[in-house]
Amino acid sequence: MVKNPKGSDPEKSAPLTPLCALDDIEGSTGIVAEVAGVRRAFMVIRRDDAAFVYVNSCPHIGSPLDFRPGQFLNLERTHILCSTHGALFRIEDGYCISGPCAGDRLEAAEAIVEDGMVYLIG
Fold first, then answer.
1. Which domain holds residue 115?
2. Residue 82: which of 97, 25, 20, 40 has the closest Cα?
3. N- or C-end of the chain: fewer Cβ atoms within 10 A?
4. Three-state SS for 75?
5. Is residue 120 within 8 Å of 109, Cβ to Cβ?
6. Three-state secondary-structure class, residue 48
7. Which pLDDT belongs to residue 14?
8. Contact 42/19 with Cβ under 8 angstroms?
9. Is residue 56 within 8 Å of 65, Cβ to Cβ?
């Protein structure tokens, strides 16, 4: 989920981990980043000037969601698609609307977009 840090100070005290430039994302991308000393795989989904960041792991069995590296969206580019089971997740909140994990959610990562860069918070 993306927060806009302008005018709010809580995020400024938390460490920021750079993920990618917003302009480098065409629809979606996959990123591996080290957070608190642990390497984790993330997906970044772009919608206009916003970015939604989730851990790249299906809540059903924990497999990565991308069918090709960095490709997470269905053909219509309206939902995140799990390549293993065909589950569909809403981009805005990671909620699963169909598939074996319907009603569950992707694990969201707190993120901000600042000066054209996407950062993890914390």
1. 2-121
2. 97
3. C
4. coil
5. yes
6. coil
7. 82
8. yes
9. yes
What is the identity of the amino acid at 4? Answer: N
CA–CA dist 75, 72 (Å, integer): 10
Residue type, 90: R
HSE-up of residue 50 (Cα within 13 Å, Cβ side): 10
The mean per-residue pLDDT over the stretch 91-97 comes to 97
User: Phi and psi at residue 104, in whole multiples of 5°?
Assistant: -90, 180
Whole-number Cα distances in Å, 35 to 50, 56, 99, 113: 21, 14, 30, 17
Strand partners, 46: 51
Q: How many domains does the chain have?
A: 1
Task: Tokens 């069918």: give the residue.
Answer: 67
Digit-coded pLDDT (tens) for 39-55: 999 999 999 999 999 99
For residue 95, give the CATH number of its domain.
Answer: 2.102.10.10
Q: What stretches of 5-111 show up as alpha helix (H) in DSSP?
A: 10-13
